[in-house]
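Ligand-bound model needed. adenosine-5'-diphosphate.
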Amino acid sequence: MAENILEIKDLSKYFGGLAAVSNCSLNVRKGSITGIIGPNGSGKTTLFNLIAGNLNSNKGSVNFNGENITNTPAYELFSKGLLRTFQIAHEFTNLTVLENLMMVPGNQSGEKLSNVFLKPSLINKEEDLIKQKAKEVVEFLNLGHLSNELAGNLSGGQKKLLELGRTMMVDAKLVLLDEVGAGVNRTLLKDLGTAIEKLNKEKGYTFCMIEHDMDFIERLCDPVIVMAEGSVLFEGSVKNAKKDEKVIESYLGRGSKLKDEY
Ligand SMILES: Nc1ncnc2c1ncn2[C@@H]1O[C@H](COP(=O)(O)OP(=O)(O)O)[C@@H](O)[C@H]1O
Ligand SMILES: [Mg+2]
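Prediction:
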């Protein structure tokens, strides 16, 4: 039996009178790369905000690895291995690529003032280890040549790769990607896809990814979940989603062109 890493039941979030997420129930299979698609405004990002502890829900529950994590703050989820990336990348523009990655791990000894004075060697050793890890991550992502470049100078696509890299500085179990492919050129999109597949196969990450690019979704995701008006409209293969009447209707109903606007 397939084990679920994430189980969401009857989750709702209201903004004033608007139900952005409405009695939403879905499961994410451990080890999968699950896609989430749906028209703009269908509640995808809000759903991620609820799961990842960036927003509190009004109703319903979220279970992660069998543990109830409903409305748990983001930093606690981070230490449990539940991470997310943002639709707009969150890099530190004035730090280098390597330094950006080195910012990620929490609980560094250097953060404790007493350690700065009493155990400088401990801090140096730890920093060396973190630097080593950061170097491995940039190599993994083919960003080695940009290690010492300021993150603010990276292209949109390279920033997305760096964002993915941040999830590799800790032991992630479930990573939520919000439109990681948006605005990324074809070549880098391929690298991004390869990195996601490698992390999935080699490091056992489960991914749940919101994406508009249907080719990208089709290459990576099984299953795909289609959201409409805050809840799940369809779950299955991308192939079946494309020919599902309800799915087609939900896109057309918004005046969108089906093929371009997924
Ligand atoms: N912070 C907020 N305050 C008020 N309304 C919001 C907020 N965030 C999202 N919404 C609304 O909730 C709905 C779902 O938005 P969102 O989750 O961003 O959709 P998607 O990511 O699928 O495009 C939209 O109607 C949006 O305008
Ligand atoms: Mg969104």
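The first strand starts at residue 4 and ends at 15.
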